[in-house]
Design a protein that fits this description.
Layout: H1 2-24, E1 49-68, E2 71-84, E3 90-99, E4 105-112, E5 118-127, E6 140-149, E7 163-171, E8 188-202
Antiparallel strand pairs: 1-2, 1-8, 2-3, 3-4, 4-5, 5-6, 6-7, 7-8
Length: 209
């Protein structure tokens, strides 16, 4: 009986060790699994780039009422969103920030939530094609990289980024009221939205690695 117990204990220890090894394995790279949905031709990423990261954004589009021409208008002063992966793990944060590579020009920025690498982007093309963009939703976008920065400890997940697409948007449109007079200047509106963001890099960026 004692021999049987020892054999059983040994088997359990072996199984636990195997289980621990499997759990400790790093998550596989998901680049091959990142597949953008169908999208308008005008916001297609140029050939030679491939999607390597996807994030599902949840947050607000933040507007302020300002003078505009002869009247007043809601003006976007920053998005504020968190991007999650398919397992609901935080991937990046998204906001406006001064781009140090353009003398502080304020651009859309994404910062990786683990290694704090950052990419700044400039909108190249917006699309409100009704065949793709939901009614009463902010446009889909093609954004080109205009600056990247490693994290303070050398993290570089986002520094290979060449383009970003904002797709599958819902909500986020500026209000249609409460910005019609000088007494309303300075009013702010934080409008909930969701969107999917796809990050691209050069298709041959991993060659030789």
């Amino acid at each position: 009986m004692r021999k049987s117990v020892r054999v059983l204990d040994s088997a359990l220890i072996t199984l636990c060790a195997i289980g621990a090894f499997v759990v400790s394995l790093p998550h596989p790279a998901y680049a091959a699994d990142v597949t953008p949905p169908p999208l308008p031709a005008d916001i297609q990423v140029p050939a030679g780039n491939k999607a390597f990261l996807e994030g599902h954004g949840f947050g607000t589009q933040n507007y302020i009422c300002l003078p505009s021409g002869s009247g007043f208008a809601w003006t976007l002063f920053t998005p504020q969103a968190t991007l999650l992966d398919d397992l609901d793990k935080q991937v990046t944060t998204h906001f406006f920030s001064p781009n140090p590579f353009e003398d502080g020009t304020v651009r859309a920025a994404w910062q990786h939530s683990r290694d704090t690498s950052t990419v700044w982007g400039q909108v190249i093309v917006p699309s409100s094609d009704p065949n793709f963009v939901a009614r009463d939703s902010i446009p889909w976008l093609l954004v080109q990289k205009v600056g990247v920065q490693d994290g303070p400890t050398g993290g570089d997940t986002l520094t290979a980024t060449t383009f970003i697409q904002r797709l599958n948007t819902h909500g986020g449109v500026a209000p249609s009221t409460d910005c019609t007079s000088s007494t309303q200047v300075g009013n702010k509106a934080f409008v909930p939205y969701t969107a999917d963001y796809f990050f691209y890099k050069l298709a041959n960026a991993d060659a030789g690695n």
